[in-house]
Amino acid sequence: MKNEPGRSGGVFISDLSAESGAATLIEALDLYPGAQVEFISRDQLDGDALQERLQQAAYLVLPTLMHEPMPRPLVEAFANGVPVIASRIGSAAELIEPGRNGLLFEPGSARDLARRLAWADAFPEKMRQMGECARADYQARFITQWSYQTLFGERRRSARV
Fold it and tell me: Tens digit of pLDDT for each residue in 44-87?
């Protein structure tokens, strides 16, 4: 992981569809013009370039309006130690613990999102700490459960019987 002090601004990784919440984010940026959020299309960058951009970001904005079972940008952000500012909807609401590994706002509320963006800019050290917790959550939830023992232990044990 890159040096933490170099992190700044946010990223929004998605298309500009209505379900992505891009309109909510654009409206929030009008309400709080101090936020620096880069809009990135997933097909715009390859995996390495996207990874590098996430490692430079202070936070990921996920203003989705639809119930996604497991938003890929959220998992990628957690893997890179980036806290997530997301709509309180779907699995994002279950994975994000406000103030610990990210922030939540009401779906479709540009005013609520603008408040979260302003808070993130006002407290960069707290956002950095949330990024550390996000990385730890990624390790605990997505990595440890896929160990060799978990995947092959049961099969090998039953083969011996």
Answer: 777 788 889 999 999 999 999 988 888 889 999 999 999 999 99
Instruction: State which amino acid sits at residue 87.
Output: S
Q: How, if at all, do strands 102-105 and 37-40 pair? A: unpaired
Strand partners, 61: 85
Cα–chain-centroid distance for residue 59? 7
The span from the CA of 44 to the CA of 46, in Å, is: 7
pTM: 0.84
Residue 31: count other Cβ atoms within 10 Å of its Cβ.
15
Contact 20, 68 (CB under 8 A): no
Enumerate the β-bridge partners of residue 105: 87
